[in-house]
Amino acid sequence: MLSLRRWTIALAAVVLAAGVAMPVRAADEKADRKAMDKTLVSTMRDVMNVGVDLYNSGDYAGCYHTFKALLLTVKPVIDHRPDLQKHIDAGLAAADREPVVWQRSRALRGTLDDVRKALATGEPLGKPDDKKPDDKKPEPPKPVTLWDKLGGKEKVEKIVDDFLAAAAKDPIASRNGKLVPTPEQLPDAKKALVAFISSQTGGPIKYEGKSMKEAHKGLDITKEEFDADAKHFKAALDKTGVKA
Asked: Structure pTM?
């Protein structure tokens, strides 16, 4: 069942198109067809833009019903163009055969483009183009990972730098310097910690080091030391602007 919003959009399409075209027909049955077609082409563009905005926002059903309402409204107005009326019928039928709604929207967009072009030029409807529009399914939005929220590689490296520097100065966290990496070990330690964080937060960097259990085997980390490390890591997150 259509949502109230979609019904509103569909109704707006009907009112907008009919509101422009009907006065021309009622005023004079012999009104200038070219003038009417020109007005209709402009009106169709405005309504189609509503549908395009819906499609681009992910509301494929709203787009489909907007395009369908527009075609159904335009069809009786262009009784001087039976070729286009038949094309609209064929386009609606073809769209209904599409398996998913975003494909139906694209199919109706093609029909609308054909009708607008024929009305704008006054030329007979040409042979349908054998080329199909790119029906590539819209890619779903990429999920935001914890790694993304941390700021990616650059920010995580900064977090690790700040954490290791602060922990090294803390006699509890560093066990009076005994747990501080040597200058030679520091680059590899930073690289391993960044990779470990990546592997735990959905990042792209693969961690190939030891498990945490193996890496800390025999160190007998106390609760006090663990809490000190946690405090410095949280401070590094806060310093980088990441909420812990």
From this structure: 0.46
Q: Which domains does the chain have, with CATH numbers?
A: 4-121 (no CATH), 146-240 (1.10.490.10)
Burial of 80 (0-12, 13-18, 19+ CB in 10 A): exposed
Identify which of 209, 173, 181, 179 has the alpha carbon closest to the alpha carbon of residue 194: 209
Extended beta strands in 11-92, E state: none
Element (H, E) at 172: none
C-alpha dihedral sign at 61, 65, 66, 67: positive
181-204 per-position pLDDT tens digit: 788 888 888 888 888 888 888 888
**Secondary structure of residue 203 in the 3-state scheme:** coil
CA atoms of 51 and 65, how far apart (whole Å): 8
Give pLDDT tens digits for 54-76: 889 888 888 999 899 889 988 88
Instruction: Please state whether 176 falls in left (phi above 0), alpha (psi between -120 and 50) or beta.
Output: left
d(CA 31, CA 80): 12
- Residues with Cβ within 8 Å of 31's Cβ and at least 6 positions away in sequence, in order, are 24, 25
